[in-house]
Amino acid sequence: MVETFRNYLTARGSFTDAELEQIEAVTIVKKLKRRQFLLHEGEVCRHMAFVVSGFMRLYRTDAYAVEHIIRFATENWWISDHESFHNGQPAKGAVDALEDTHLLLWSRENWDLLKKEIPAFNALQTQLISRTFDAQIDRLYAAISRSPEERYHAFVKAFPGFYQRVPLHMIASYLGVSRKTLGRIRKQADSG
Question: Which segments constitute the Cyclic nucleotide-binding domain (predicted)?
Answer without folding.
Answer: 30-111
